[in-house]
From TrEMBL:
The gene is topA. It comes from Paracoccus spongiarum. This is DNA topoisomerase 1. NCBIfam families: topA_bact. Belongs to the type IA topoisomerase family. Residues 164-169 are annotated as: Interaction with DNA. The lineage of its organism: Bacteria, Pseudomonadati, Pseudomonadota, Alphaproteobacteria, Rhodobacterales. One of its GO terms (molecular function) is DNA topoisomerase type I (single strand cut, ATP-independent) activity.
């Protein structure tokens, strides 16, 4: 029978079910060959000759395929329908060539969904391997190898602590570092907005915002401070107001197109907090189960039959009013048509998420997202009415505006609404019926509750003129009918995985199949960390980026990387020769590599130090030199590398001055460097910062004392506020509290790996606050230890019924277990039959159950404990260790079963 090869066992299992016994379906388990991770795997001097190696794990899979081909030489390569899938088929054919006889039939088939119809149709339309797609793969693989294996060693030699560089990963890292520098360079700008609560003649209230003052339209920063805001509040509160116009305009919202790879990753991140890698893993499982179409695509078009199926599902589920008169057609925006596939959609539109039989929670959630987006994409637009109300004073010195929106028909929004990365401030407030020319009355005490909450924040409030009150960030008139709110411009937000993928897509960097691996790699390299779903560059990530920008600017350029991606797309379309593209790249890249050969580490560090100066040495509050050493006052701060790798800030006056600090502090705190706190008992007490955070130290390391006493700063303590007395207290821990009143053993208090504690012998009990370690007395210590002991003591479950003694000794009880009642004798537990209740169980019945259980599990049957001699523990000379004791154990179990059976009159087994 013909041999069909796919990537994964799950896919093989599904396809074999569709094809039946006429085909043999095997899995290659992904790529079977790759470039060996060593120099020379790609040789630029030999026209970029590439040396491939079969992975050790792949040899057995290849052997299974070769063995199958002995029976039938008809080979069908059915790997995924994209560039990577084409490459896997090419590798398979190359590796299997020795096993194929001359004239053997080799075909390539592709299908966008693993359904019976799609698979059987594909088998009827075989083709040859698409060589331009393979060439595009070869070009990308060679480029990634040449960059990684030539640029990474430069980083290792010139920038200790750096791990690697990559053609696209380094550009992606630059995006994150550039954004972080934008945030650090950002200076907030203050502005105020003025609001009023108004009422119609009928008493219905609504909010309006000041939009013009003194007859002039207000721009964002026109009310730049509290004084200007106070004048505006007075102007509004002192005037009568009238509705000048009411404008209602119909509006509509069209649905979003169905998912492609990047938009699926973005929406999974927004709505489910799912990273790109996790998203693609769940999608892969759904695809292999035949539930969705292929999940690596840059296309948004949908097959005509799928469009009609979606329309049928909408009609059946929501009715004709939710169905547009004609199908919605979405144009594919991919530049390379050969690599553009259908959108990501369910294979069966009628299979709604509530009917899906999938155990994994992430797969169910992702399918729900895909189904809703697909169905919504073919639904009617949402219709609404947007109303704008203009309010003016008679002298036209004051103008306010109220806006609102009314949903007339929800359309596709009944099913799906796309998430947002950041608030866009769309006004969806409902407005009452308002008529042009009617009075707009100011509502007293409208902002009273808001003012009371603001006043609780503290005393940092602006000065308020007569007739007004002030709280932090808020001004109101005495009647609290008008309010001014303080705002500050915000820095650009840090990237999430969703917004990073979106930005890479906008710039043309990377492709659908690479987004997840790129974002994952920069985190695995410790160049970036994720905090509350935001991506923050680590210090080594900054150093790598600045190094590459300084010495390899072209290869981390957004435009250059995007242009190279376009050339690779042209290769896959058959419009460019892959070796020509590699030749042009290598000619310039090798020159750039040669330019770094004479670089010294000190020269590199100086260049990076200058580039990062605004980040490393922010302006001081007193206006002093930010590079001046805060300890010795003579040396200057600069970037240094540690012997173990990584970098830190140190004083040029070393070794006389040993001040150091990390490049940055976590959570944006001001870094605290080394400083001397004072002298205690002739020893210098210092505050230092190590790889695990700040700590205090007594004395300095020497030959006599290589490891001087140290103590970490407890969590919640401010290192900047630490003084000598507090440091000496930390270094004196653990602190004796006194002898325990019951046994006289010493109780101690200290701070350990898991926080503050009290200790009595080998028993520990946690304390809620580190400060209590220095003040806790005997009564409190005994109370904490006793409470810990009572919490840790397990309460034995009470038996449901005592049945009496077993003939071999030991009581028999009926217990209530997790899976129902059971009989317990020593170590034998026998479940009660369903038709027997604990109340009705007799001793004879219990003995029968125990005997039956002991016969089934002889090795676990209970035995009377017997003292073991030293000789018994030792295996006899000349005997194989381990076999004899096992036999004895089984025999003992059988003996116990026989004794139980004897008591009940039943034979064991």
């Amino acid at each position: 029978m013909p041999v069909v090869v796919v990537e994964s066992p799950a896919k093989a299992k599904t396809i074999e079910k569709y094809l039946g016994g006429d085909y043999r379906v095997l899995a290659s388990f992904g790529h079977v060959r790759d470039l060996p991770p060593k120099d020379g795997s790609v040789d630029p001097d030999q026209d970029f000759d590439m040396k491939w190696e079969v992975a050790a794990d792949s040899r057995k899979h290849l052997k299974a395929i070769k063995d199958a081909l002995k029976d039938d030489q008809n080979l069908i390569l059915a790997t995924d329908p994209d560039r990577e899938g084409e490459a896997i088929s090419w590798h398979l054919l190359e590796a299997l060539q020795p096993a194929l006889k001359k004239g053997s039939a080799v075909h390539r088939v592709t299908f966008n969904a693993i359904t019976k119809a799609a698979v059987t149709d594909a088998m009827k339309q075989p083709r040859q391997i698409d060589q331009p797609l393979v060439d595009a793969y070869l070009a990308r693989r060679a480029l990634d190898y040449l960059v990684g294996f030539n640029l990474s060693p430069v980083l290792w030699r010139k920038l200790p602590g750096a791990k690697s560089a990559g053609r696209v990963q380094s550009v992606c890292l630059r995006l994150i570092v550039d954004r972080e520098m934008e945030i650090e360079a950002f200076r907030a700008r203050e502005y105020w907005s003025v609001h009023a609560r108004l009422a119609t003649p009928g008493g219905q209230e609504y909010d309006a915002q000041l939009v013009s003052l003194a007859g002039r339209k207000l721009d964002r920063f026109d009310l730049a401070d509290a004084d200007a805001a106070a004048m505006a509040v007075s102007a509004v509160a002192s005037r009568d107001l009238t509705v000048a116009s009411v404008t209602a305009k119909p509006a509509s919202r069209n649905p979003w197109p169905p998912f492609m790879t990047s938009t699926l990753q973005q929406e999974a991140s927004r709505k489910m907090g799912m990273g790109a890698k996790a998203c693609m893993s769940a999608a892969q499982r759904l695809y292999e189960a035949g539930l969705i179409t292929y999940m690596r695509t840059d296309g948004i078009d949908m097959a005509p039959e799928a469009v009609m199926a979606a329309r049928d599902a909408i009609r059946a589920r929501f009715g004709e009013e939710y169905l547009p008169k004609s199908p919605r057609m979405y144009r594919n925006k991919a530049k390379n048509a050969q690599e553009a596939h259908e959108c990501i959609r369910p294979t069966d539109m009628m299979l709604s998420p509530d009917r899906l039989k999938v155990a994994a929670d992430d797969q169910r959630k992702l399918y729900d997202l895909i189904w809703k987006r697909t169905i919504a994409s073919q639904m009617e637009a949402a219709r609404m009415e947007r109303t704008t109300v203009e309010i003016e004073s008679p002298d036209r010195q004051v103008g306010l505006r109220a806006t609102g929106q009314v949903m007339l028909f929800d359309g596709f929004l009944r099913v799906y609404d796309q998430g947002r990365d950041d608030e866009e401030g769309e006004d969806g407030a409902r407005l009452p019926a308002i008529a042009e020319g009617e009075a707009a009355r100011l509502v007293a005490t409208a902002f009273e509750t808001e003012f009371a909450k603001a006043a609780e924040k503290g005393d940092d409030a602006p000065a308020a003129p007569a007739g007004q009150r002030a709280a932090p960030g808020l001004l109101v008139n005495d009647a609290a009918s008008t309010a001014a709110r303080q705002h500050f411009t915000q820095p650009p937000p840090r990237y999430t995985e969703a917004t990073l993928v979106k930005r890479m897509e906008e710039l043309g960097i990377g492709r659908p199949s690479t987004y997840a691996s790129i974002v994952t790699t920069i985190q695995d390299r410790d160049y970036v960390r994720k905090d509350k779903n935001r991506l923050i560059p680590e210090d080594k990530g900054r150093l790598v980026t600045i190094f590459l920008l300084k010495y390899f600017p072209r290869y981390v350029s957004y435009d250059f990387t995007a242009d190279l991606e376009n050339e690779l797309d042209e290769i896959s379309a058959g419009d460019l020769m892959w070796r020509e593209v590699l030749g042009r790249f290598w000619k310039d890249f090798s020159k750039a590599l040669e330019g770094t050969s004479e670089l010294r580490i000190t020269e590199v560090l100086e260049a990076i130090d200058d580039a990062l100066a605004p980040h490393l040495y922010p302006p001081r509050a007193d206006g002093g030199d930010p590079r001046l050493c805060p300890v010795c006052g003579a040396g200057r701060l600069n970037l240094k590398t540690a012997r173990s790798g990584g970098a830190f800030i140190g004083c040029t006056n070393y070794p006389e001055c040993r001040y150091t600090r990390p490049l940055s502090a976590p959570d944006g705190d001001e870094p605290v460097g080394d400083r001397i706190l004072g002298i205690d008992a002739g020893d210098q007490i210092s505050l230092k910062t190590g790889r695990f955070g700040p700590y205090v130290q007594r004395g300095e390391a020497s030959e006599e004392t290589p490891k001087p006493p140290r103590a970490s700063i407890p969590k919640g303590w401010d290192p900047a506020a630490l003084d000598l007395d507090r440091a000496v207290q930390l270094l004196s821990l653990p602190r004796p509290v006194g002898p325990h009143p019951e046994d006289g053993e010493l109780i101690e208090a200290g701070i350990g790996r898991y926080g503050p504690y009290v200790k009595h012998g080998a028993k520990y009990a946690n304390l809620p606050d580190a400060d209590e370690v220095f003040t806790i007395g005997m009564n409190r210590a005994v109370e904490v230890l006793a409470a810990k002991q009572s919490r840790g003591r397990a309460t034995a479950a009470a038996p449901l019924k005592d049945l009496g003694e077993h003939p071999d000794g030991g009581g028999i009880q009926v217990m209530n277990g997790r899976y129902g009642p059971y009989v317990k004798w020593q170590k034998v537990n026998a479940t009660l039959p369903r038709d027997v209740t604990p109340e009705d169980l007799t001793l004879d019945q219990a003995l029968e159950l125990i005997a039956a259980k002991a016969a089934k599990s002889p090795a676990k049957a209970a035995r009377k404990p017997a003292a073991k001699s030293a000789a018994a523990k030792k295996p006899a000379a000349g005997k194989a260790g381990g076999k004899k004791p096992a036999a004895k154990k089984a025999a003992a179990g059988k003996a116990a079963a026989r004794s139980t059976a004897k008591a009940t009159g039943k034979a064991p087994g």
